[in-house]
Amino acid sequence: MCHARFPLAAVLVLSLFAAPTVADRPNILVVIGDDIGWKDYGCYGHPSIRTPNIDALAAAGLKFTHAFLTTSSCSPSRISILSGRYPHQTGAEDLHMRLPVSGVFISTPLREAGYFTGHMLKTHYGPNGMKQFDWYGKSVKEFGTFLDKAAAKNPSSCGLDSVTRIVRTRPEP
Fold first, then answer.
1. Is 3 marked active-site?
2. Using CB atoms within 10 A as the burial measure, which of 41, 76, 123, 168 is most buried?
3. One of 2, 66, 74, 96 is an active-site residue; which one?
4. What is this structure's pTM?
5. Sign of the four-CA dihedral 11, 17, 23, 24
6. Would residue 43 show up in a list of annotated catalytic residues for this protein?
7. pLDDT tens digits for 96-122?
8. HEC-encoded secondary structure of 93-158
9. Phi, psi of 104, rounded to the nearest 5 degrees
């Protein structure tokens, strides 16, 4: 009788180490504000600039309180943020340089882990940078198509109601 219980006990113990399901994984949203200072958002204490949607995302998610600039140029800075490497390590240390073929963004391991990845608006990453995303949008209006495609890939992983509401109810410029 004791031998019959061992396999069941082993399965139960091993199930504690099982990978999380798609529904257990967090949604990840990286917002890179181009040519904006860290104190230019309400969630970081700006006294007069109103950023209610960014503030809501910061309140419900992770807000960075310690960040450092590796370069003041936009392209190398974005590539550094998405690759986790210093500009001189990425091979794209100057303005409008493209990500070399050997470069990898955080989107690549996320895709390999089953995430649907997307990028919108300003890039200057070049072909190697763009191929690391499942989707690319050129306007804020297109973000709805990203949400639809992400939901089609992993319907149980898209708890993006607040983000969808923010984008789809955004006033026209």
1. no
2. 76
3. 74
4. 0.58
5. positive
6. no
7. 766 666 777 788 888 888 888 877 767
8. CCCCCCCCCCCCCCHHHHHHCCCCCEEECCCCCHHHHHCCCCEEECCHHHHHHHHHHHHHHCHHHC
9. -135, 130
